[in-house]
Amino acid sequence: MRKIGCLGGTFDPVHIGHIECAKKVLKTFGLDEIWLLPAKDAPLKNQTSTSFEMRTKMCKIACKPYRKLKVCTIENELPIPSYTINTVKELKKKYPHDKFYWIVGDDQVAQFNAWKDIDQLLSEVQFIAVNRNGLVIDDNRLLVMSDIKRLESSTRVRQGHFRDCCKGVRNYILNNELYLEEIVKNHCSEKRANHVFSMTKVCVELAKIHHVNMHEARMAGLLHDICKEMDKTEELKIMNIYFKDKLHLSNVIYHSYTAIPWIKENLGYTNKKVLSAIYNHTICNSNSKLSKILFISDKVDPSRGYDSSNLIEVSKRNLNEGYKLVLSERNEYLVKEGKQIDK
What we know:
Layout: E1 3-9, H1 16-28, E2 33-38, H2 52-63, E3 69-71, H3 84-94, E4 99-105, H4 106-109, H5 118-124, E5 126-130, E6 142-145, H6 154-158, H7 167-175, H8 180-187, H9 190-209, H10 214-223, H11 232-242, H12 255-267, H13 272-279, H14 289-300, H15 309-317, H16 319-337
Parallel strand pairs: 1-2, 1-4, 2-3, 4-5, 5-6
C-alpha cells in the first residue's frame, strides 16, 4: 500500500513554496509520493488567470526534478465545481489499495465550515495541516506540520515576483506571456495601463508588418512603462546604483533605465533585444527594428488623444521613414519644453 499525499490547489502558478512544502511533508510523514492536483475550478477561490492545461504543465515542470513528486489531473475528469469530497471518492475508487493524505494550509482549516461534506471528508481521508500563517490549529482529527516559513504565494508571483518560481516555470510563464497584463495593472494607474495595452497593439501590428518577432514586440510593449510610476525614492536609488551617467537627464525618462534592473531582478527576463528596446524607448539611440517600433508605438499610441493616424500609416509603409518623422516631432517637442535630449 502506497501512502500518497495530495496537495490540491489552483497552482496559478505553482511556486517554490508549493514544492518545498511538498518535499517537507513527504519527509516528515514518511509518505511514498506527493501528488499535486490542479483544480479545474476551486469553489472558494476567484477565477483562475490561466487554463487548466497551462497550470498542469507548470506543475509538471516544477515536479520534474523530483522522483517522488507527481501531478494528478483527476479533477479535469470530474464535474465542476471541484469539491474535494468528489475528488477523494474518485481517487479511492481508482486506487483502492493506496492510502491518501490530504494536505491543506492553516488558512483552509479555518474555512472548514464552508467545505462541502467536511465531516464525511475527514472520515474518508487523513488531513495534514501545514501551519504556514501561524494560525492556531486545535483539531485532533488533523496531523499538523509547523515551521513553514516561506513567503511565496501565487498572488505575489502574479504581481511580478517571477523568481518565486523555479527557472523552468518562470521560462514557461515568460514564453507564454502569462500574468503580464495583471502585472501592468498592479504597477500602473488605470490611465497608464490603458496606454500600455493600447500602444502594445500598435507595437505588435508594426512588428507583424515589418517581420519582427511579435512575441518580443509584445513583451517590450507591455513592460516598457513598468517603472513609470515607481516611488521616486526607489527610482533615485536605482539610478544612483546603475545609471549615474543619466542623472543629468529629465527624470521623466528615468523609467526607461530603471525598468532594466527591475525586469531582470523580478521577472528573471534577460532577452537582450527587448531590454535594449525598453532602455531606448524614450530616446531611441538604436538602429534595431524592435527599438524603432517600440519608440514609434509609444509616441503614436491612439489613446494619447491626438491624431496620429498619418504617423502610423507612414510607419506601416516604411519603418525608417515613420521613425524619422516621429523622432523629429519628439525632438521639436523637447526643444519647446526646454528638456535635455540624450545623445
